[in-house]
Specification:
By secondary structure, the protein is mainly α. It folds into two domains: 207 residues, Lysozyme; 57 residues, no CATH class. The chain has 13 helices and four strands.
């Protein structure tokens, strides 16, 4: 196994929310930058955020039905089996919980950064699989955000139409969504935005959100699965001296990753003291083994 495109993504400032998002990224393979950007856009990284016009709550602003659905489908995989078992789906597709007290407890998990991040990542993973199959191409963070914004059916319709003709009016294709989100579908002068315009604005919003949280790379870029290779070797370039080498060597040793000294010819592979990219490697290791940063 390998870590593909490690330099595309990075951890910004360290905190409880970022650590929760990193854990979710590591467990599910959904890109950290995308999850971070989405959380920044949705809640400003405020785990207690509440919407004024709907039941949306928490880091990823899950409404009640969406939350109950994703917990029903994935909660047991992340230590929330009690919650998943308490949720029932009716013949009409509605998710219910018979005990009001248990229902409140399950919904309150939306304000827990770890639970919210894990469920947001699982929801994105489900959407990624469906979009990839429908579009027959790589799925980007913006594609996933369209699924978050329009639902999976709406996202398939939007993205398929955009692939065919990005210049067509988005409001004409989604009149109901346009009525509820005029600022998304119309410019300040009242002119309708094209499918491409709407898509590109969401891409910029995601990237801005990730950058505001200290990440590098594109939250809107292709979603890569991130996996750690337990047998990988990290090359220590000749420029890494003293504390630099000691820090990296001790970190790698702690997590069972082999390191070897290298000559000047391998200087390009040097990893020095914590910068956004090799710090991410350390955080990935910590998250995978359940450590604290």
């Amino acid at each position: 196994m390998t870590i593909p495109n490690l330099t595309k993504v990075a951890v910004g400032r360290v905190g409880g929310v970022q650590n929760a998002i990193q854990l979710a990224s590591t467990r599910t393979g959904i890109d950290f930058n995308y999850l971070l950007g989405q959380a920044q856009v949705e809640s400003g990284l405020n785990a207690s955020a509440r919407a004024g016009t709907s039941s949306a709550t928490g880091l990823y602003q899950f409404i009640e039905q969406s939350w109950l659905g994703v917990v029903k489908n994935h909660g047991a995989d992340h230590g929330m089996g009690w919650a998943a078992d308490s949720i029932t789906r009716t013949a009409s597709g509605k998710y219910t919980v018979s005990d009001p007290s248990v229902r409140r407890q399950i919904l309150s998990l939306r304000n827990d950064p770890t639970a919210a991040s894990l469920m947001a990542a699982e929801h994105a993973s489900d959407n990624k699989d469906q979009l990839g199959a429908a579009l027959n191409r790589d799925v980007t963070g913006t594609d996933l955000y369209m699924a978050h914004f329009l639902g999976i059916g709406g996202a398939k319709k939007f993205l398929s139409a955009m692939d065919g003709n990005p210049a067509q009016s988005a409001a004409a294709l989604f009149p109901a969504a346009a009525r509820s989100n005029r600022n998304v579908f119309y410019a300040a002068d009242g002119s309708p935005r094209s499918l491409g315009d709407v898509y590109n604005r969401f891409a910029a919003k995601l990237d801005k959100g990730a950058a505001a949280s200290g990440a590098t790379g594109l939250a809107s870029g292709t979603i890569d699965a991130l996996k750690l290779d337990p047998d990988m070797q990290v090359v220590l370039g000749s420029e890494a001296q003293g504390g630099d080498r000691a820090w990296l060597a001790s970190t790698l040793e702690r997590f069972g990753v082999a390191g070897r000294a290298s000559g000047a010819s391998e200087a390009a592979a040097t990893l020095l003291r914590p910068n956004p990219d090799n710090a991410r490697l350390a955080y990935l290791m910590l998250a995978r083994l359940g450590g604290n940063v």
